[in-house]
Write a structure and sequence with these properties.
By secondary structure, the protein is α/β, with parallel strands linked by helices. The protein is built from 6 helices and 10 strands; from the N terminus they run βββαβαβαβββαβαβα. The strands form 2 sheets. The chain has a 5-stranded mixed β-sheet, with helices on both faces. The termini are far apart.
Amino acid sequence: MRVLAIDTALAACAAAVLDTAHGGIIASESAAMGRGHAEALMPLIARVMEASDLDFADLDRIAVTTGPGSFTGLRVGIAAARGLALAGNVPVVGVSTLSAYAAPYLGIDDKTPVVVAIDARHGQVYLQAFGPSGATLVVPRLAPLSEAVHAASATPVRIIGSAAQAVADALSATGPAPVAIDARAAPDIGWVAQIGAVVPEATAPPKPQYLRAPDAQPQHAASLPRR
């Protein structure tokens, strides 16, 4: 299977092409950025496709991260994935940002729990905890940092995500030291592609998983009355 993976959910703009018949990732690029995904994404995808020596018609599937993450970043990535899928007549699937963070650790050891914590600002995190065999122990949610600390305190765990160091620092005063801390700002795009290759289309729609309401709200009080 040939999969184009796209990630603009967090502090990176990334794309990769996976070819399962030829050993895995054949081209990838990731650029760290907090904003500007809309301008950077399509040229980046073009470079990755050129490096893969494939045309869009050669793809079997497109995968895109669906969040949680930046509202703007998610819309950019999902809109691009849907547009390319429509133009190329290929299916598109969504990949949870939380699952993409956890996947490389569960791939090498599915016995040790993984707590994924993404910085959501204002003392909050996007949180999910995975147990043995990847079973979900804590469902995806927006939670206070203290809840992530509690999830990581029951047993030695690996803490992953942009808020991993903050969770580990808070945990150090009360709980066991984590087995691993990985505070990377965005998931590995290669794993987004690998998840995208195996996830069932019916259960992975390319729809944003925001987990929180937008900061900007309609100003109903300031609106003019209708006539």
